[in-house]
Amino acid sequence: MSILRTPPVAGTADPSGLPANRVAAGALPCNTCAARQFSICAPVSDADLPHFFAMSVKLRFEPRRYLFDEGDAPRYVFSIASGTVCLSKALSDGRRQITGFLFAGDFIGLAHGETCAYTAEALTPVEVCRFPRDRFERYMTEHPHVERRLLQIASTELAAAQDQMLLLGRKTATERVASFLIRLSDRAVAHGRSGNPVCLPMTRAEIGDYLGLTLETVSRTMTQLRKRGAIDLDNTSVVRLTSEETLRRLAGV
Amino acid sequence: MSILRTPPVAGTADPSGLPANRVAAGALPCNTCAARQFSICAPVSDADLPHFFAMSVKLRFEPRRYLFDEGDAPRYVFSIASGTVCLSKALSDGRRQITGFLFAGDFIGLAHGETCAYTAEALTPVEVCRFPRDRFERYMTEHPHVERRLLQIASTELAAAQDQMLLLGRKTATERVASFLIRLSDRAVAHGRSGNPVCLPMTRAEIGDYLGLTLETVSRTMTQLRKRGAIDLDNTSVVRLTSEETLRRLAGV
DNA sequence: TGGATGCCCTGATCTAGGTCAAGGCAGGGT
DNA sequence: ACCCTGCCTTGACCTAGATCAGGGCATCCA
Fold first, then answer.
1. Is residue A211 a contact partner of residue A163, using CB atoms and an 8 Å limit?
2. What's the number of CA atoms in the CB half-sphere (13 Å) around residue B27?
3. Which one of A97, A107, A175, A210 would you mutate to disrupt binding with B, by most B Cβ within 10 Å of its Cβ?
4. How confident is the model at residue B27 (pLDDT cuts 50, 70, 90)?
5. What's the confidence (pLDDT) of residue B30?
6. Which CATH number is B122's domain given?
7. Are residues A84 and A112 located together in one domain of the fold?
C-alpha cells in the first residue's frame, strides 16, 4: 500500500505570499471560506479564529494524491475547504471498500488509533486546512466547544456508517444506487446547493467500491434507473433526478 | 416496528433495597462492578462517583426485550453492566442489519439525532445503568474527562464500523465468519477473559443479520471451518479455535 | 490527424450465496 | 411420557450480481 503513496503538493492558497500560519487577523482566509459554517471551525469564536488558524497550513492535493495512507502514523487532522476526498480500506489482494466520500466542510482524522485506519485520497483537486494532531487535541482540551462539535461530528458519522452497513448488508443493487443518489442530493441541499442535478465527482468504479458492487453493476443499474424514468444522465457525471419519488421508493426506506 | 416494543422490567440489582439512585457512597455497587474499568464511568473520579451514580438507575432486561426502538425519542443513554445487547436497523419489509453486538462495559446512546437511529435489544439477560440523556449531557459539559472518553468511544466505534463496511462490502462468507470469530476472541482477551473457547450468545440468524448472510450460510460456513480444522464446536454456542492461525488466514487480512 | 488512454456501456456466461424444504435435537411444560 | 417450540444442519435448486470480453466515446498529446 504505502508504495502507492504520493507526497502532497504545497498549496498557494494564501494570496498574501506570507507563510500560511502567519497571516494578519483581518486578512484571514477563513472569513471568506465557503466551507467555514459547515466545518469543525464553525464553533470557533471570531476572537479566537487567528489562534486556531495559526495552527493550520492550507494545502492543495491533485486528483489521485493521498492525504495519508492506511497504516501511516496519524500526524495530522484535516478540514476540507473544497473538492472531493474518499476514505477507503483495502484487503491485501486489492479488494477495497470506500467508507465515505467527503466534501467541503468535512473533517478527516477520526477513528485513528496508533496508525491511520484508512486511506484518504483526493478524487478532484482538493484544498484542505491541515492541523498537527497533537496541537489540535491540545486546542480541543482548552476549547470544549470544539470538542463538543467533534463529538457531534463523530456521532453523525457513526449514524451514517450504520446506514451504510444496512445498505451493504441487506440492500439490492437497485436500492443501493438509488439510496446513493438520494444521499448525494440531500447532502447538497443541506449545504445550501441545489439537490437536483446531482454531480458525481467519482468514477463508476469508485461508486462500486463504495456500494459493494462492481463498476459493471453500477453502470447497468444506472441505465435501468434511466429506463424506469427515475433519472436522466446529462453526461456520465451529472444526473438529473426526473422522478425523485420513484427514486426514493426504489431506495427502499 | 414499534409494535414489537416491550416495556423494560425493573431491576433488583441493589441488594440494599434502597432506591437505586439513593445509595450511600460507601456502598456503591460501582465499586464491585466488573464492567467499571471498561465503561464510560472509568474516568469518573472516586470522589465524583456518588454524584455520577445518582443520575442512574440500574435496570434488568430479559432476552428479546428492547431497551429502545428505532424511531423512539432518545431519552436515555445506557452503560451495560452485564449481558449481550444487539443494535439493529430494519427495512420496512423486515430485512434487518445488526450493526453491533454489545457486551459488559459498552456504551449505548451515540449516533442518535431527533429520534433513535437504531433498535437496541437484549439477547441475554442484561443489566444496564440507565442515565437520562439531558442530565448525562449536562454532566459531560461539566466533566471534560467524561466527554473526552465518549469521544474516544465514538472514535473506536467508528473504526469498528469501517471494518464492518469492508467486511460487508468486500469479504466472502468464509472471510466474514472467520473475521467474526476472531473479533469475538480478541474482544474477550481485551477484557481480560480467555479468548479461546469463544461464546456465541446469539443465534445463527443473528450472526447472519450481522454479517450480511443468511442463517443457512452461517451454518454451512461453520461446518466448513470445522472440516478445515480451524474450529471445533463443543455445542452450537461454544466454539473452540483449534487453529487460530488457519482462522486468521481465512479471515483475509 | 492519428494514436493512446481512461471511462463507460453492454452482452454472454458463471458462481457464491440465497431460497425452499426437510429432518434432528435439546429444553420446557403438562 | 409426550408434545411443542426454537434452533441448527443439510440437501436441492435458483438467481442476483460477478466475471470476462468487446466496443464506443471523449480527452490529451505528438
1. no
2. 12
3. A97
4. low
5. 87
6. 2.60.120.10
7. yes
